[in-house]
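Standup notes, structure subgroup. Blocker cleared on the adenosine-5'-diphosphate input:
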Amino acid sequence: MQWETVIGLEVHVQLATRSKIFSGASTAFGAEPNSQACAVDLGMPGVLPVLNEAAVAMAVQFGLGIHAEIPEVSVFDRKNYFYPDLPKGYQTSQMYHPIVGPGEVEITLDDGSTKAIRVHHAHLEEDAGKSLHETFSDGMGQAMTGIDLNRAGTPLLEIVSEPDMRSAKEAAAYLKAIHSIVTYLGISDGNMAEGSMRCDVNVSVRPKDQAAFGTRAEIKNVNSFRFVERAIAFEVERQIELLEDGGEVVQETRLYDPERDETRSMRTKEQANDYRYFPCPDLLPVVLDQAYVDHLRDNLPELPADKRARFQEEMGLSAYDAGVLSASREMAEFFEQVNDVCGDAKQAANWVQGELSGALNREGLPIQSSPVSARQLGELVARIIDDTINGKAAKQVFQALWNGESDSADAVIEAKGLKQVTDTGAIEAMIDQVIADSPAQVAQYRDAEPDKRGKMIGYFVGQVMKASRGTANPQQVNGLLKERLDALC
Ligand code: ADP
Ligand code: MG
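Run returned:
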């Protein structure tokens, strides 16, 4: 039987506010445990929450960024459950009237094609604290669980997709698209390793020709692009095997274990009514006036999908190049600066994706820490375009800039004497010398069938380039050599 995979993602994005969603406590990462949870975050009797306006603005910006409806009114609800990391006994969330309505996220697949994934809604909520199971003991070898409530009350935007994805690759591409939108907007640092973006992955399978969806399992808290793909791959295989053996998929919450590369059952899925949702009596409904939303809309930065389209349409880049160069805001800004300086988008794209990305990957550096600045790279590319240097010399210039030997491409070219030799007389003199020094190769060339000579010319080109220490113009060398050698035949 042919099976089809159906995936829907619930992505939790930690918003980059300085204080919590309902209190003034700091959200800074890495503080001493329990030093950043105040009475409001703990839900102590008598306290009242005050909504953080920055969190509202960020949620609305996200909504506008995915062309979503922004309802005039949204409402906070209490989601009641008991768990040690939630001392309030309820999580303040939005159930019935979320702040962001239906929208759409465009994903790019490996072959450069795009697909629209519908977003059902996005809502604001507070994060819970963190149970520390592994790092604790009572000092006498007895394992204990510690609790760090610093994260309690941290603002989260939960983005709920429609079940529109059909493969693990599409799910990873969707997560990457969300990551790039929120980091372009600057509403989250997107740091997955620190938990700033986590996702619950809903997976089901159905026979290829069946319209109804199968029963899904929800894999909780997957925190890397790679784990999303691996968890889905495992889960799809598990479900297909189960169904083909005549079994049934139960709707449940599962956990992905990266070490064993498998998902395990945690608990059967709660139904909404288990949570006894009701509107939070301590918080007023959020009412957004049109002018406020318009103001945010007018001030949105250019977002990845628009950038990608502009890179293709105005700069003539391929879909693939445009996708890579617009994936992160830092990458896009770097590329655009190189292009501004050198004036040739294709060359700028080649150098950023080729030589520069290669060097950054080798050193494990992000582009914002590149030792070669965008201005320096732009000037280097400009010297290739205006024929001051050839491609080979350009690599040497790049290496020198990377090593910090000089501050500019021009200074390196000057110091190392890399200026391309285009003077015909000078090149011909080198050619004469090489021919005089290579009687055996010349004889071979002369004796070869004319259609074999093309290949043999490489030897002479190499010698002349060597004689010029790589600075001769290779096209000129090729042309002049061919003339000279053919004249000898
Ligand atoms: P719940 O209220 O139980 O969380 P939702 O209807 O809100 O369920 O859906 C949660 C997520 O599960 C959404 O992202 C949705 O796209 C996805 N989803 C729903 N049904 C399926 C299914 N059959 N297969 C895969 N994903 C699904
Ligand atoms: Mg849900």
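Discussed briefly. The chain is about 40% helix and 20% strand.
Next: hand off to the docking folks.
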